[in-house]
Design goal:
It is built from 6 helices and no strands. By secondary structure, it is mainly alpha-helical. The radius of gyration is 15 Å and the shape is elongated.
C-alpha cells in the first residue's frame, strides 16, 4: 500500500487491523479497503457498479485478500490503458 511517508512510518509494522481505521483518511484506492468508503459515497459506488469492478472492503488482509486485490488492480489497469478507450480519447 502506498501511503504518505509520515503515515507509513508511524504505523510501520502494526497489524492490518490497527492500520485499517487510518486508511479511510487517505486516497480513494486506500479508502476502499475500509467499509466506510462504500457509505455515502455515491460517485465511487456508481463507478464501481457501472464498470463492474470488484472493489470491496477487507476487515482482514490475508493471502486470498491480496490475490483478490491484485485482480482488482489488474482490471483497473486494463480499463485505464484499454486500446479502445485510448482510441476514443484520441478521436475526441
Amino acid at each position: 500500500m502506498l501511503l504518505p511517508r509520515g503515515t507509513n512510518q508511524s504505523y510501520s509494522d502494526q497489524p492490518y487491523s490497527v492500520k485499517l481505521k487510518h486508511y479511510i483518511k487517505n486516497n480513494l484506492l486506500v479508502q476502499s479497503l475500509h467499509p466506510d468508503a462504500y457509505v455515502r459515497n455515491p460517485n465511487f459506488v456508481n463507478v464501481v457498479e457501472r464498470r463492474k469492478l470488484p472493489f470491496q472492503s477487507h476487515s482482514d488482509f490475508r493471502r486470498s485478500d491480496l490475490d483478490q486485490r491484485q485482480g482488482l488492480y489488474q482490471r483497473l489497469c486494463e480499463q485505464v490503458w484499454s486500446v479502445e478507450r485510448l482510441r476514443h480519447e484520441l478521436d475526441m
